[in-house]
C-alpha cells in the first residue's frame, strides 16, 4: 500500500530541467532519455522526406544529414546520463536502428548465422587463414625464430636516449628550420672523440622486402657504409631496429674503431624504435640492449639521438638511400618477427574476408543502393514470412515454375545475359561475394533491368 502510494506521489512531482537535462529523484535519467528519444524520432521525418523506396538522396547524403541533425540530439549531455541503465539507453539505440534502415532502405539487417560466426572466430580457422595468406607450410615455422613470449630486458642505467632535439621543435615547423635545429644537435654531439652512425629502415605498406642502411663516420675521416636486407616480410619499425643493431655490430666488430674512439652516437629518425629499445619491448630491442651492455663493459659511452627525417640532413639521406637499395638484395634474410607475420596476415585477411563495403559507400542512385540492401538481407517485395518462419516469394516472370528467391535472382538466365552484356562473367559461386565488392552496383542494375525492381 505504501509503495503504490509513493509511486503515485512520485509521478505527480514535476521533474526539474536544467540546461535541457531532466533530472529524476533517483537519477536514472529515464524521463530525460524518453524525451530525447521522442525528439529524435520526430526529426527522423527529415530523412523520410528526403527519400523513398526507389528515389531520393544518396545514402552518403542521408548519413551526413543524420550525423548533423539527429545524432547531436541523441548525444546531448552524454557525460551526465551515461550512468543510466542499459535497458534505458536502448531506447536511443532504437532511433539509430530506424535511421540506418531509412538510409539504406532495408528492413532486416544482415546477421551472421551461428555456424559462420563460430567458424570465423575459431582459432584453428584463423591459423589456417594465416598460413594460406603467408604461404607458410607447417614445416616453415622455422622462419619464426623468436620465442612466442617476447623477452623483457632493461638497458644499462647510463644509456642516453634522446627523443627530442637540443632545441625545442615541432612537426609543424618548416623543413628548413627543422634541418637547422637537427644540424645544431648533430654538431654538438659530434665534438668529442665519438664515432657517428646514421641509421634508417625502409619497407612498404604491404610490409614486403625490408631494408636497413647504416653509415658509420669516424673522427679520423674514414667512413663505412653498410646495407642489409631485413626480411621477405619486415615492417619499417623492424627495419629501423635492425639498422640500429647492425650499427652497433659494425662498431663493435672493428677493434681499431673501438680503441680509437670514446663511444658511439647513433642518429635515427624513428622515435618509436628508440622508445622500444628504452623499454625493451621486442626481441630485437633485447638484442640491442645486450650489445649496449657489452659496450658498457668496455667502458664505452653511447647515445641514441632522434633527428627529423626528410629534411635533407646528409647522413640521414645517405642511410635512407642505402636502406632502399638493401630491399633489392637477392640474399634475403629468412627470419620473420612474430609481430610482422601477424600484421601481414591480419592485413591481407581483413581486406578481403572481413571488410565489406557498406551501402553508404556506393556513390549511386537510391534505387541501386536499396536493391543491394535487399539482395544482401534477402528481404524482397512480395515476400511472406509464415508462422513457422518459412518464407515464400512471388513467381519469377522469366521462369514460371520457380519462385523469385534471392538465390534464383542471381542464378536466373536472364540476369546472366544482362551481366554478360555489361562485360561481367556471371560465375555462380562468386555472385554472392560480388554483392560485397565494388561490382555490387552493376549486379543491382542488371537485376533492376530484369525484374523492374525487387
Which characteristics define this entry?
454 residues; single chain; alpha/beta
Q: Which percent range describes the beta-strand content? A: 5-15%
Distance between the termini: 58 Å
Please identify the structural class as seen in this structure: alpha/beta
The count of DSSP E runs of length 2 or more, i.e. the number of strands, is 10
The coarse overall form would be: elongated
Helical fraction equals: 40-55%
Give the averaged pLDDT, no decimals.
79
Family: Belongs to the RNase H family.
InterPro entries: RNase_H, RNaseH-like_sf, RNaseH_domain, RNaseH_sf
GO molecular function, one term: RNA-DNA hybrid ribonuclease activity
Organism: Trichonephila clavipes (Golden silk orbweaver)
Explain how this protein is built.
Pfam families: RNase_H. One of its GO terms (molecular function) is RNA-DNA hybrid ribonuclease activity. Belongs to the RNase H family. A six-stranded mixed beta sheet has the order 3-8-7-4-5-6. Strands 1-2 form a two-stranded antiparallel ribbon. It has a two-stranded antiparallel ribbon with strand order 9-10. The protein is built from 19 helices and ten strands. The chain is elongated. Residues 107-126 and 136-145 have low confidence and may be disordered. The chain has helices at 2-12, 30-50, 59-75, 78-81, 86-104, 114-120, 123-134, 175-189, 236-252, 255-260, 271-279, 283-297, 314-326, 338-354, 366-377, 406-411, 413-421, 431-434, 440-451; strands spanning 17-18, 21-22, 160-162, 194-202, 208-217, 223-233, 263-268, 301-306, 384-385, 391-392.
